[in-house]
Amino acid sequence: MAGIEVTALHKRYPDGTVAVDHVDLSIGHGELFVMLGPSGCGKTTTLRAIAGLERQTTGDIRIGDTLVNDLPPAERDIAMVFQFYALYPHLKTRDNLAFPLRAEGLPKPEVRKRVDEAARLMRLGPLLDRRPRQLSGGEQQRVALARALVRRPRAFLMDEPLTNLDAELRADMRTEIKHLQGELGATMVYVTHDQVEAMSLGHRIAILNKGRVEQIGTPLEVYDRPASLFCAAFIGSPPMNLIEVEVADGKLHGQGGLVLTPPPGLPRDRRLVAGVRPEALEVTAPGAEGSIPARVVSVEWLGDEIIYVVDHSGQRDVRVRMPPTVRFAADAKVGLRHTGGTPTVYDVSTEELVA
Amino acid sequence: MAVSVDEAVSTGSARDHTPPARRLGGRGRSVLEVALLTVLAVVMLFPVLWMIETSIKENRDVYAIPAKFFDFTITLDHYKDVFVAPDGGRSALSVSFLNSVVVAGVSTVLATVLGVPAAWAYSRFAVKAKKDQLFFILSTRFMPPVVVVIPIFLMYRQVGLIDNKLGLILIYAAFNVPFTIWMMKGFVDEVPAEYEDAAMLDGYTRLQAFRRFTLPLLVPGIAATAVFALIFSWNEFVFATFLTSSDSVRTAPPAIAGLIGGTTTDWGLVAASSVVFALPVLVFAYLVRKHLIAGVTLGAVRR
């Protein structure tokens, strides 16, 4: 296993599209590193550049101590798992697993040993003599993972491996991948557009947007202190409420009378937006202490919680997460107040975190 | 009264849900269908049938008035004339059939060999102005042959390709390559690029990955495309007429057309050579029909 260093990566296609603008990543040895972002943000291109399937326009990629810029994919000693599994359709599971080893020219007994080992690890025993067509989506993805394992590569690259599975299976496979990664101590770069996957799997998450890294941090860091307005809007479901605020009398004042505790070190002369998580707000009876008058627009009953969408005189569609015991009907007149700690504050013009 | 209103509503809606076919009466409709289809089949197939009949009639039966439909003597003399010259050697027609086989076959192979990798490249790589390039390639098919044949004749005269099989092969291949690229690009798009990516990670070069993993999956598409290209080259008449003149180079379509005219026309020979001319494509299409159907319907369903 080895770490991966990506320095000043830039990828421009012949037709002029810039897929990756500027990306620096430093992925540790044995780390499960997730690249998260909307489609077209450059996460897959970055991964394919690490794999050697795309040649970057400029920038360096190091795997371990080796500069791999000019190495073909096969010589980078990495394995990749694809969204569409990419199992060779004419080969049985056993031969699909053995294929990369035979391509390497390993002796037969060694090939058999490694295939059996990977099959045991991914519980593929009964599937070894079937062809991909005869396997379900989940089984195909387990075979694809096993095919990556047999190589004993220096790093695993995963390109949205769970996107094509249904929800239940996806949760199972998520657990399986996390477990496997921990057991092998493998360096793994995992690309996804699914924030739940990113939060539950990643040791660290890189959020990409328009070919740039917006933030790198642990799942908690990314959730608690999104580094930009983009991250604030992208992470969390429902997303953060972004409330325009002004600083006065040592407080943050939103429109409509909402008052928030300011973080220290705020600049005075700029337009600011506060990011407030739905769980940092509270819907109360109208006129409760510290609340401002508001109206419930819609109610989403999720069983374990209720998401209220409320309007108040200053802002529309504020989302509030409440326990299922607190019930208000749609259109009810209610109070809204801030109960969480200090919010994150962003500069409207730079869209970056200021405090 | 309320009950009768309900009934009226329910019968009304039931009638609305009845498919129109039922209303016409299933049996009457199918009889009409069969009758119409029969008429259509007779109209379509009669010339073919007449051609086959003429090819096996003796000459006096061919010209008999009223025409003989069933009551005639069967002879294979016309077929013999197609292949054997009166002096016992090879006939001019048989040479032209051989030319057709060579020209159509080689031009189809050429178009496929050039077109399939091109389609793969257009499907897989980011190419500058890809859409414009593809449109330009297609635009070469916009001109009917009869419009471009004069300039091509003049160019061919400069380079000595007039009355030359190579000339025909090149022009047919040039006409088939755009078609092959467009049709094959659709097939290549359907094969996930991940197969090649995976193979490249397993140690193959990009071209090896294409040859070993993508190409076998493209076989039905290639078969369908090649049949269409082959049919075009086999049937092509305009270029063949203008660009060739000698019996040793001419392909079958102008050779058969050449039989008609002059003082007398040997209709038996025309019919027999037409049958011989029609057979190979029919047989070939029949042999690859499985691939043809798979090829034509592939891409209709999104994965």
Automatic annotation (TrEMBL), chain A:
InterPro entries hit by this protein: AAA+_ATPase (IPR003593), ABC_transporter-like_ATP-bd (IPR003439), ABC_transporter-like_CS (IPR017871), ABC_transpr_MalK-like (IPR015855), ABC_transpr_MalK/UgpC-like (IPR047641), Mo/tungstate-bd_C_term_dom (IPR008995), NA-bd_OB-fold (IPR012340), P-loop_NTPase (IPR027417)
GO molecular function annotation: ABC-type transporter activity; ATP binding; ATP hydrolysis activity
Sequence ranges assigned to domain ABC transporter in this UniProt record: 4-235
Any one annotated GO CC term: ATP-binding cassette (ABC) transporter complex, substrate-binding subunit-containing
PROSITE patterns attached to this UniProt entry: ABC_TRANSPORTER_1 (PS00211), ABC_TRANSPORTER_2 (PS50893)
GO process annotations (BP): carbohydrate transport
Pfam family, one: ABC_tran
UniProt KW keywords: ATP-binding, Cell membrane, Membrane, Nucleotide-binding, Translocase, Transport
Protein name: ATP-binding cassette domain-containing protein
Source organism per UniProt: Micromonospora orduensis
UniProtKB/TrEMBL annotation, chain B:
Compartments where found: Cell membrane
BP terms from Gene Ontology: transmembrane transport
InterPro entries with a match to the protein in the record: BP-dep_ABC_trans_perm, MetI-like, MetI-like_sf
Topology versus the membrane: Multi-pass membrane protein
Keyword Signal: no
GO CC, any one term: plasma membrane
Ranges that cross the membrane: 31-52, 97-122, 134-154, 166-184, 213-234, 267-288
Keyword annotations: Cell membrane, Membrane, Transmembrane, Transmembrane helix, Transport
Pfam families according to UniProt: BPD_transp_1 (PF00528)
Residue span of region Disordered: 1-22
Signal peptide per UniProt: none
ABC transmembrane type-1 domain residues: 97-288
Family membership noted in the UniProt record: Belongs to the binding-protein-dependent transport system permease family.
Name of the protein: Carbohydrate ABC transporter permease
